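Today's session is about reading a structure prediction critically. Students often jump straight to the picture, but the first step is always the sequence itself: look for stretches that repeat, for charged clusters, for runs of hydrophobic residues. Only then move on to the predicted structure, which in these notes is written as discrete structure tokens rather than atom positions. Here is the chain we will use throughout the hour.
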Amino acid sequence: MNKILVVSPFEEFTNLVLQVKKESDFDFDILYDNIGMTELEFFEYSTEQAKRFAQESRYEAIVTRGGTYLEIKKNVDIPVVEVKITMLDVLRTVHSLKKNKITRIGLMGYLNIIQDDKELGELLGVKVYPVHHGTDEELEQLIHKVLNDDIEIIAGDGLSVNFAARYGLQGVKLMPQKEAVIEALHTAKTILYARKQERLRHSQFAAILNSSSEGIMAIDEQNRITMFNPKIEELFGLNRKEVIGKQVTDVFASQPGLVKLLQAKEENSGDVIELNGNHFALKLTPIVINDQFLGMVANFQDVTRLQMLEQSVRRKMAATGLKAKNTIDNLIGESKAMQEVKQKIRCYARYDSTVLIYGETGTGKEIIAQSIHNLSERRYGPFVAVNCAALPENLLESELFGYAPGAFTGALKDGKAGLFELAHNGTIFLDEIGEMPISLQARLLRVIQEKEVMRLGGNKVIPINIKIIAATNRNLKQAVIENTFREDLYYRLNILTITVPPLKDRIDDIPVLCEHILKKFCQRYKKIVPTLPGTLQELFQQYTWPGNIRELENILERIVVMSINGVIPEFVINEIIGELSEKNLDSQFAIIKEDTHSCFKPVPEMEEQELILATLKETSGNKTLAAKRLGMNRTTLWRKLKKFNTART
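Below is the predicted structure for this chain, in token form.
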């Protein structure tokens, strides 16, 4: 259905409009006289039709001219656009008449047609007869005046010219140019587009209000309620028809505290109020335009729902690994070495400089990184941890830097944010940095230098605000010499350093570590804390702990799981003693470091044979398990056994 209606009051204008319709791409309907009505009859008919069409929403805009424009505009509530008669149109008509030796000319019609310019009339030598109402009485009076003035011809609108013809007067209808019709249609289209956009904005605004989980209410400068969303109805049991336009003092008569806040005309976001037994967080935002207060918007949020939402967000953040769980309190130990580590943590947390943590596997490097984060101003931001050795190069690159839509086959259609982006306003922990492929080290260097990233396959630079903490168990300086680690990246990382002591260098901390770890596992498994026998305590002090705290935790978890009412079974104690003693023996003899980088000397053959056979006995002949305990691969064990058998024969 066309949205624009053109009302044509007479035939000449209809022909002009039809010409425009044929020559342009405008889409509109035309209302014109096709049954032989008089000008006045069609004038009244078109006005009534326009009113009906507007009420039925058949059209969204009307285009017409002259008195028809003035009359329709008064009677409809949709846009009405005038096809204007310009001064040039009047001059053109008068000039044409004078060229034909017609000198006694009268301009008669509605003001918007004849311009009602008496000075122009005097300059052109014509008389001006303005029509105000278009009634028969008014037109008849004007015609008598025209006749008395001895006018030869009338130039004007269709109504005036046709009425003058009844009295034998000649007439010429003032006609607009085709461009005026086109301009009016353009204006109508522009108005329709603007109204459509306004409706869209209104619908979007209504959708936002209606879908909001907050109660939203607006009041004007006189403290009258002007609107509220369905959530307000739900929360307070208000009826829109009964409340809109009423004073807040009447609606909330039982809540003088709320009324006082609403009437204060000040921004407020810190109050919690009680309504109908429920608590709400209240936010007030003044509406101010050109320094003039025009009202207030009040937001009501259910405190219980806010608390549930906060808990949900916390759970989701914890589930996605973007939260640092450990603090400096989780670093157990008071040895001199650990006191130095804690001192550095407290110091480094105050600055955004890059931190590089050195330490063997299992020494707690990530706990240190999380402790730095939780002591820093970034503690409320994300903590993102990534193991640089755990992913292949291409996957590590896309995880770190993200990728744009369609960056590669199988990429998500909307792209994906990288870990650097996810760590914005927080901390990223790059574990095992020494294992990062050298091809990615250059990109990491740029991130550190420029504080910005670009996704794979993208062309947009994304600024980031992050603290970088890296960790390694390698000698990075040696890696630089071996050309497996970039020298420029090494110096960018090696600013604030922490060397985590291995457990064998902090033997004094073992008793307190054992106590802490045992309590932790007993709480987890709901068990009584067992007492470690002296034999185990002594062995723990003597053992070299190649797996560091992680190895100690594994043994203590086994003790807790196997304990009964706080008592450790004898066979568990013996098993642990045998296991740790065996590992110490392995370390002492270092029997099978057979790769090309080995710096260990082989043990005497007889001792090696005895150890292998003893291990096979403990594993009930399971060669795979025996090889694992002996620290060699299964093929090596098989070869040695074959050698022993050959020697016996």
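Discussion point for the tutorial: Residues 178-211 form the longest helix (34 residues).
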